Amino acid sequence: MKVDYGIVYAEVYDILRLMDKSVVMQIPVEILEYIKNERDVNYNSKIDFDDIFNRNNIHPESLNLLAWLDLSYWADKDTRKSLFQAYYQKDEQMHPNVFSFKKNDNN
After folding, report:
1. What is each CA distance from 33 to 13, 24, 26, 57, 79, in whole angstroms?
2. Which residue among 23, 46, 58, 70 has the highest number of C-beta atoms inside a 10 angstrom radius?
3. How far apart are CA 3 and CA 6, in angstroms?
4. Rounded to an integer, what distance in angstroms lies between the CA atom of residue 77 and that of residue 100?
């Protein structure tokens, strides 16, 4: 399924507009401008702003982009570290052969 990133950027743009400016401005201006310029200005989002992260009314890629922005610009170092550790631990449980190979390669 092809993703319409104009819709994704429109939804993310709408959410960023609701956020405190000091938080949004932690994102580099170039990224903010890209989101603004690439959004579909004719798209009317279905986001329920009382329940922004409800998966029934926001595109999954919009959630992914917001998560990336969070990890890249808003989360502190300890939060990033714990999230990545949890992710890799889960991935290691799902694919033990791949991770055992990598561990042996690093020895």
Report:
1. 10, 12, 13, 24, 27
2. 58
3. 9
4. 27
DSSP secondary structure letter of residue 75: S
Q: What is the pTM for the complete model shown?
A: 0.73
The answer to whether residues 36 and 13 touch, using CB atoms and an 8 Å cutoff, is yes
Question: CA-CA distance, 68 to 62, in Å (whole number)?
Answer: 10
CB 34 within 8 A of CB 1: no
Residues in the chain: 107
Rounded-to-integer distance, Cα 37 and Cα 58, Å = 20
Task: Report the SS3 class of residue 107.
Answer: coil
- Residues 43, 47, 49, 51, Cα dihedral to 10°: -170
Residue corresponding to tokens 């033990």 = 96
Helical segments of the chain, H only? 5-18, 21-24, 29-38, 60-69, 77-94, 96-106
